[in-house]
Amino acid sequence: MQFFKKHYEKIILSLVLAGLAVAAGLLTLKVGAVKSDLEGTTRVIGKGKGKPLEPVDLSTNQAALKRVRSREPLVIARDGHNLFNPILWVKGAGGRKMPKEDTGLATLVVTNIFPLKTEVAYQGPREAGNVFRYRFQIMREASTNSSLWRPFQRIVAVGDRANEVFSLKEVRGPVADPTELVVELAVDSRKTVTLTKDNPTYTEVGGFAADLRHEAENRNYPHQRQGQKISLAGVVYNIVAISESDVTLEDSQTKKRTIIRLKGSS
Fold first, then answer.
1. pLDDT in tens, 6-47
2. What is the pLDDT of residues 229-244, one digit of tens each?
3. Engineering a disulfide at 121: which of 6, 44, 130, 201 sits with its beta carbon 3.0 to 4.6 angstroms away?
């Protein structure tokens, strides 16, 4: 008992050290067991057939990035931007208010252009008192005289002029049944044309007409011809030329000319 009293600290320390030694040994064994369990679990997971992860949808991010890269610079002084370019509003067709710039040629479009034909067709001879004359059907859609737009007939002899459209210059073959008739057109280049039994009709494009539409006023101007006039917001415009692809208009006051191309043409 006396020995225990003198050396009890050493005995307790020895017991603690012995416990620590045992714990260290057990810890080594536990680490080995845990490591073995982890390796087994890893092998099981590696051999499994789990569903692969779906790719992340980045379409919205890519679209936003594309908009950022393609953004237009802010230009506040260009046409159509009215922060520093105030415009006047007026009443258009039907009393509807619209910008004054829309009431002019800015929203006038050419929706259609079609050819106007000049046609001369031989229809046969006609005898009157032993004198032979010859019947023709004529049409001049491009004429400023509206009476010539529809087909009409004329009976002429050699040397006669048919309503300022053509003159009969020569008849070849029997006068009662000619094989050829030579006519001279009285328009433009005074072209000479030969009509035959097999090909009794001559046709050429004498001009063009156009269909116009004013988008802002929702108004149509059909079958417009060269020389006609249209009125937009109190301004009269003369149609000075029509080609197969555009219409040229002239402001009757300023004489400024504007070319409007056929809608959809290059």
1. 666 777 777 777 777 777 777 777 777 777 777 777 766 555
2. 998 877 889 999 999 9
3. 201
Distances in Å between the Cα of 116 and the Cα atoms of 64, 113, 209, 243 are: 54, 10, 7, 11
10's enclosing H/E stretch is helix 2-47
Q: What is the pLDDT of residue 70?
A: 77
Low-confidence ranges of the chain (pLDDT < 50): none
3-state secondary structure of 16: helix
For 146, the token pair is 């509206």
Kind of pairing between the strands at 246-251 and 257-261:
antiparallel
Give how far the C-alpha of residue 188 lies from the chain's centroid of Cα atoms, to the nearest Å.
36
CA distance 119 to 148: 11
Q: Dihedral of the CA atoms 14, 16, 22, 27 (nearest 10)?
A: -150
**In this structure, how many other beta carbons lie within 10 angstroms of the beta carbon of residue 164?**
12
Structure tokens at 117: 């034909």
